[in-house]
Design a protein that fits this description.
Blueprint: E1 9-10, E2 22-25, E3 28-34, E4 41-48, E5 57-60, H1 67-80, E6 87-91, H2 97-100, H3 103-110, E7 114-116, H4 118-128, H5 132-146, H6 150-157, E8 175-176, E9 182-185, E10 188-195, E11 202-207, E12 212-216, H7 238-250, E13 257-260, E14 266-267, H8 269-290, H9 297-304, H10 311-330, E15 334-338, E16 344-348
Parallel strand pairs: 5-6, 6-7, 7-8, 12-13
Antiparallel strand pairs: 1-14, 2-3, 3-4, 4-5, 9-10, 10-11, 11-12, 15-16
């Protein structure tokens, strides 16, 4: 019997417009900001941070550093922030620019601290130091080895220093969040659950009293989070980390309100976790079948992603392809060897 097709159990039919908010649970407000990619939005969260010490707000994730996102934030400031109820802190789940992009702008503007995991802060600071020159050598070696042709290599060269262009200046200090930390935000306690694979130390937050999970990119209702190998860590096995981390969320319970960074809030966490596991199992089986004959990473990518990809999508696709290949290498099911022109070939054993 065929496995039932997973259909997200969305809690809402539509998202708020940029600058607007929707209260999805007591003290938890949903915002949506634009992104300049095919995935054209990110969900952000404004939490009531009022307690016995005073009224206030906390922001979870910030949007990318672009003028239209700042303008949308200005609308939010006018509607919610006052002298008696100001912003108290900015919380960031992970270093990716759609999450981290305006953290520096927000913390400096309001004079508030940044809270985030140490590995994510370190990654953001490191990538902001990358220039065309420092990124170039590692990038060329990595993408050439994956099988990039001359046109693709030119696109890789152009990406040097791209992270710094998408984020405001990263704060020089932060308050560390770790797995298991219980953050008191206003009158609610949010337990930190760190996921891996998509990012080094991705912080998610679960409030038992509200039965609400802020899942970031770690658990999305419709698309699979990108799990990629990148030039900065060319021998990594992020898919093994991601699949292992799915188990951390199975302990929450089957039906919290999940607040993801993309698409719509949804119910049915356990079903989605199972669907993500099944998805990657199917992709791994397909990848193993594809490398019955020796292929470069790009050749495998073109089998896994048969639709037309834009330049931005191509870099995510090759990273994800290599993640599946590295996972199978780790299981001893395939091997990698240098072929002609120092391009790696992958083949099943």
């Amino acid at each position: 019997m065929d496995k039932p097709v997973y259909i997200p159990d969305y809690a809402y039919d539509a998202a708020p417009e940029p600058g607007e908010t929707v209260e999805v649970a007591p003290g938890v407000h949903w915002l949506r900001m634009p992104l300049p990619f095919k995935l054209d939005h990110i969900n952000l969260w404004l939490l009531d941070d009022s307690d016995e010490d005073g009224e206030g707000w906390a922001i979870v994730d910030t949007g990318i550093a672009r003028d239209e996102v700042k303008a949308a934030w200005e609308t939010v400031f006018d509607a919610h922030f006052t002298e008696t109820k100001p912003l108290k802190r900015v919380i960031v789940t992970h270093f990716h620019p759609d999450h981290m992009g305006l953290a520096g702008w927000l913390t400096r503007r309001f004079g508030v601290p940044l809270w985030m995991p140490r590995e994510e802060w370190t990654q953001a600071r490191m990538l902001c130091l990358d220039t065309d020159e420092t990124f170039g050598a590692a990038s060329r070696r990595f993408y050439h080895g994956a099988g990039f042709d001359a046109e693709m290599m030119a696109a890789a060269e152009a990406r040097g220093g791209g992270y710094a262009k998408s984020v405001s200046r990263v704060p020089g200090s932060f308050i560390r969040i770790q797995d298991g930390d219980c953050l008191r935000i206003g009158r609610q306690t949010w337990r930190t659950i760190v996921g891996t694979g998509h990012a080094p130390e991705h912080a998610c937050f679960y409030c038992e009293d509200l039965d609400v999970l802020i899942s970031g990119d770690q658990v999305l209702p419709k698309i699979s989070p990108n799990v990629s190998v990148w030039p900065q860590e060319p021998e990594s096995n992020p898919l093994a980390l991601f699949l292992e981390s799915l188990d951390y969320f199975r302990k929450i319970g089957p039906n919290p309100l999940v607040l993801p960074s993309h698409n719509l809030p949804f119910h049915g966490l356990d079903a989605r976790l199972g669907d993500l596991s099944d998805h990657h199992a199917e992709r791994l089986d397909f990848t193993l079948a594809v490398v019955a004959k020796p292929l470069t990473g790009v050749e495998v990518m073109r089998q896994l992603f048969q639709r037309k990809l834009d330049t931005h999508q191509t870099f995510f696709a090759i990273g994800e392809t290599l993640a599946h290949l590295h996972y199978l290498m780790g299981q001893g099911k395939i091997r990698r060897r240098l072929g002609v022109e120092d391009m790696y070939l992958f083949e099943s054993l």
